[in-house]
Amino acid sequence: MVAERYRGAPRLNNNPETGETLCIGCNLCALACPENLIVVGWQRDDATRRKVLTNFTYDTSRCMFCGLCEDACPVDALELTQDFEMAYFTREGAIWDRHRLEQGPTPARYTR
Q1: pLDDT per residue over 61-99, tens digit each?
Q2: What pTM did the predictor assign?
Q3: Which of 7, 34, 86, 111 is the most exposed, fewest CB within 10 Å of its CB?
Q4: Please, what are the domains in the chain?
Q5: CB under 8 Å to 28, separation ≥6 — which residues?
Q6: DSSP code string of 43-105
């Protein structure tokens, strides 16, 4: 059993109705992170005059799982989940892109 307040693998939440990401590109999570491991990229949509998220990277190898990024998010787009299996064979595997963050961690299934 994992502790109730355990903070593990990060995830970018999507809107369940539209399937679009909840991230509004405000960059508050990156500013709140003491390790500077979050990079948020966005562009301004000329039609709607809103920011559109283009890329989002999260370096889990440097993260200390403090939860400050999660607390800073005004729309609850970023979440630290209860998942704890984040082992990789290379350092590049620890840098999660937007697709990996939206998909969430996929635990390995071992079979014989």
Answers
A1: 999 999 999 999 999 999 999 888 888 888 888 899 999
A2: 0.83
A3: 111
A4: 10-103 (3.30.70.3270)
A5: 72, 73, 74
A6: EE-TTT--EEEEEEEEETTT-----HHHHH-TT--EEE-S------SSGGGGEE-HHHHHH--
